[in-house]
Amino acid sequence: MATRNVETEDRGTLALRRTTSEYRAAAEEQAARVREEIEAALIIARDTREAIERRIADELHAPPGSFRARAQPKAPRRKAAARKKKASA
């Protein structure tokens, strides 16, 4: 759908639609920006995964009774807590 020039002097001319190459260039620019964002997110995800793996390895290799082993909070035992509640009731 090409537009026509308007013949009246006070209106000027209408612009033609963008060419295919202009759309393609805009799409390539957007694709490049998205690729950069994805790459940045992947780097952050890799770093996070490595940090988690290091932490797990540190905890697994910590000797029992060491500072690291004591610093880790243990999950409360539900059965023992339930028995205490029953005993006090």
Structural class: mainly alpha
> What is the count of helical runs?
3
Q: Sketch the major β-sheet.
A: none
* End-to-end distance: 83 Å
Topology:
Elements: H1 20-61, H2 67-71, H3 78-88
Write a structural description.
The protein is mostly helical and 89 residues long. Helices cover 65% and strands 0% of the residues. The protein contains three helices and no strands. The chain has helices at residues 20-61, 67-71, 78-88. It starts with 19 loop residues before the first helix and ends with a helix. 0% of the residues are buried. The model has no long low-confidence stretch (mean pLDDT 77).
Short précis:
The protein is an all-alpha fold and 89 residues long. The chain has helices at residues 20-61, 67-71, 78-88. The chain is 65% helix and 0% strand.
Keywords:
single chain, 89 residues, mainly alpha, 3 helices, 0% strand, elongated
